[in-house]
Write a structure and sequence with these properties.
Helix content is 59%, strand content 6%. By secondary structure, the protein is mainly alpha-helical. The chain is globular, with a radius of gyration of 25 Å.
Length: 516
């Protein structure tokens, strides 16, 4: 008797799947909570907190949702790194659960649901995305929610779900613009499959209208401010990001999603696009292929495609479960689970701070892994995503020492000038309890927040010695900042005091703008 004619068996299978997915999601939460504060703040986390103190409909380098979330969290818990990161941890648990549920919706049983969830749990990029508070944890969640709704539309034919899809896409666009690639992939998938019938109905267009309506405040902000995000993207593409060929982009997908999961998600893609049994879900394959084609040819960072994989993990796990359903192949089930868990444990330190940092450096060397970055920057002994968690307390402590060395009348007139939003953000978050004055910078949205007021005419400058000597009447070194394991360009910077700027800050500001 089939499950379709045996509701009790179906209910029991679904309950078992629910418990399994809840267990894997809980394991993810426990794992991340155990290392929630390891290594310290990531530079972008400072920036998002500060953006939350300047709520607006847009920012130079991201839409407004992440700042709003940061504002809500810090309003309740203060500037708590643990509270901020719990947003990412919970987003990760939700994605794990959704990956399993997508597998169930497309015909996967308990085993397929568990395999899909395990793939999300161990993927190196996801381990970091769901550890650090950023746009990316929410981006993966919105893509996966969107994929789940698309699957429900394909399965049930419920037209009103297009309105839910539009709502999710609109919120996703207020978080990160890369949701456009997913939306474009969905549109192309409809055109390329029999599901194009939906385009003859008003429902997808109404959903698109909802998404556009939700995105409109941010678009207006961009127009009013002269399109700073477009300038930021041009500069980042031309000067910061490492250009990857389509082949290199594909190779990065394998590494970032874990080499062990590669056969699974590739099989899921093939199953959706070519297999007769995967025909109802052909749109999922086209969504991925279209998004891949766009990103791989636009000098994009490899992780921009990361949100597309939960649906492929679900498809691959479902295809695998169907292939080993015969009694002679069922022994492969525990082998697959053990392989995923064991390989995930082996590679977890690469993107989740589970090891002491000195042990991590030795571990990277033992695995013959050279620290890298997707940007044109010199790298030290750690990958950039780890290095950017080091040095901030030491920097702020040295700035506080220099600040306290000033006479009281100069302290009242002081401002800290950082060369980038990481330095400025660290001052504005970690420097508050130490009594440091607010920071200023011409990097990204700090530039739009403007120069310090004329009353703040004593500048404590991080680095920029050549410019400082040129622009200040009295520019004197007052301290030195050193950090282990941080990015090399942050290390061993001089902290100087500028008195008597030859050009007022308000006049100098436009010359120093850098969006990248």
């Amino acid at each position: 008797m089939s499950d379709a004619t045996n509701p009790d068996r179906t209910d029991a299978t679904n309950r078992a799947g629910d418990w399994l997915l809840a267990g894997i999601a809980l394991a993810s939460v426990i794992l991340h909570v155990a290392v929630l504060r390891s290594y310290g703040w990531f530079r972008d986390e400072f920036y998002y907190v500060v953006c939350g103190r300047h709520l607006d409909f847009g920012y130079v380098d991201h839409p407004p949702l992440v700042a709003l979330v940061a504002r809500l969290v810090t309003s309740i818990f203060g500037d708590s790194l643990a509270a901020l990161r719990m947003v990412a941890v919970l987003a990760g648990a939700a994605v794990i659960w959704l990956a399993g549920r997508i597998a169930r919706e497309i015909g996967g049983g308990t085993f397929a649901q568990g395999v899909a969830a395990l793939c999300v749990l161990i993927a190196p990029t996801y381990l970091f995305n769901f550890h650090e508070f950023s746009l990316n944890c929410l981006d993966v969640l919105f893509w996966t929610l969107g994929a789940f709704v698309v699957v429900r539309i394909l399965k049930t034919g419920n037209p009103r779900l297009w309105l839910v899809f539009g709502l999710l896409m609109g919120l996703g666009l207020e978080n990160k613009y890369s949701v456009l690639f997913f939306g474009f992939g969905v549109f192309a998938a409809l055109l390329l499959t029999p599901e194009r019938r939906w385009l003859r109905t008003p429902w997808p267009w109404l959903g698109g209208g909802i998404a556009l309506l939700l995105w409109t405040p941010n678009l207006i902000w961009e127009v009013v401010h002269g399109g700073p995000t477009l300038e930021f993207m041009r500069n980042a593409t031309a000067h910061k990001n490492v250009a990857l060929s389509p082949v290199q982009f594909f190779q990065e997908q394998i590494l970032q999603m874990h080499p062990v999961t590669f056969p699974l998600w590739l099989a899921g893609l093939a199953w959706c696009v070519f297999a007769r049994t995967g025909r109802p879900w052909r749109a999922l394959g086209w969504i991925y292929l279209v998004a891949f084609a766009v990103l791989a040819t636009q000098n994009s960072k490899a992780y921009y495609l990361a949100p597309a994989y939960p649906m492929l993990f679900a498809a691959g796990a479902t295809a695998l479960a169907a292939g080993i359903r015969r009694p002679g192949w069922r022994w492969l089930r525990p082998v697959v689970v053990v392989l995923l868990v064991a390989s995930g444990i082996a590679t977890a330190p690469l993107t989740l701070p589970v090891l002491p940092v000195d042990t991590l450096v030795r571990y990277l060397a033992a695995m013959n892994m050279k620290p890298s970055s997707g940007e044109k920057k010199v790298i030290g002994d750690l990958p950039q995503y780890y290095a950017d968690m080091f040095g901030w307390p030491e920097l702020v402590a040295e700035l506080a020492r220099v600040y306290r060395s000033l006479p009281p009348e100069e302290q009242a007139r002081a401002v800290v000038v950082g060369q980038n939003y990481g330095e400025a953000g660290a001052v504005d978050v970690l420097g508050r309890p130490l009594g440091l004055p607010p920071a200023a910078s011409t990097h990204n949205n700090y530039f739009l927040w403007g120069p310090p007021p004329p009353s703040r005419d004593i500048a404590i400058v991080i680095g920029a010695e050549e410019e400082g000597r040129r622009l200040c009447n009295d520019f004197r070194p007052a301290g030195k900042f050193h950090c282990e394991h941080c990015m090399p360009y942050e290390n061993d910077q001089t902290i100087s005091i500028c008195r008597g700027s030859r050009v007022p800050f308000a006049e100098l500001w436009p010359r120093l703008k850098h969006f990248d």
